[in-house]
């Protein structure tokens, strides 16, 4: 993990924010859109309108509360709850791209992923997620957070060392 201290110190012009506490600082850069977390618009709309996000997750104010919620509530990491998205006759992601769509019930995992984003995680907190030993879903959401928020040039540095992890995490 020694080389991960340097993650994020080279940012292309498209980055939204830069780390402010130096080369080895705890502040993470943010890549892309600072409001949407670079999520698909249909997914984000469903997260923001979800009673689970607006009511239950609103009450959670700390990193540790959110990690506990992931541990107890996440059972898969797909964006939609099973059987809630009507896709008959649709091909690809046409509904989501055009915004006309076939939304369903957004998953607990994606609500919690966006909740983590609202907390503006530190490098230390993100490392805590991806090295967590209690749940593969906590680690999975940490890696998804990296994928959606970190500069693309830094992804391999974050993921290197974890690519051979053999723990099973059910995708759906």
UniProtKB/TrEMBL annotation:
<dbReference type="InterPro" id="IPR005037">
    <property type="entry name" value="PRP38"/>
</dbReference>
<keyword id="KW-0507">mRNA processing</keyword>
<feature type="compositionally biased region" description="Polar residues">
    <location>
        <begin position="1"/>
        <end position="20"/>
    </location>
</feature>
<keyword id="KW-0747">Spliceosome</keyword>
<dbReference type="Pfam" id="PF03371">
    <property type="entry name" value="PRP38"/>
</dbReference>
<comment type="function">
    <text>May be required for pre-mRNA splicing.</text>
</comment>
<comment type="similarity">
    <text>Belongs to the PRP38 family.</text>
</comment>
<protein>
    <recommendedName>
        <fullName>Pre-mRNA-splicing factor 38B</fullName>
    </recommendedName>
</protein>
<keyword id="KW-0539">Nucleus</keyword>
<keyword id="KW-0508">mRNA splicing</keyword>
<dbReference type="GO" id="GO:0005681">
    <property type="term" value="C:spliceosomal complex"/>
</dbReference>
<dbReference type="GO" id="GO:0000398">
    <property type="term" value="P:mRNA splicing, via spliceosome"/>
</dbReference>
<feature type="region of interest" description="Disordered">
    <location>
        <begin position="1"/>
        <end position="21"/>
    </location>
</feature>
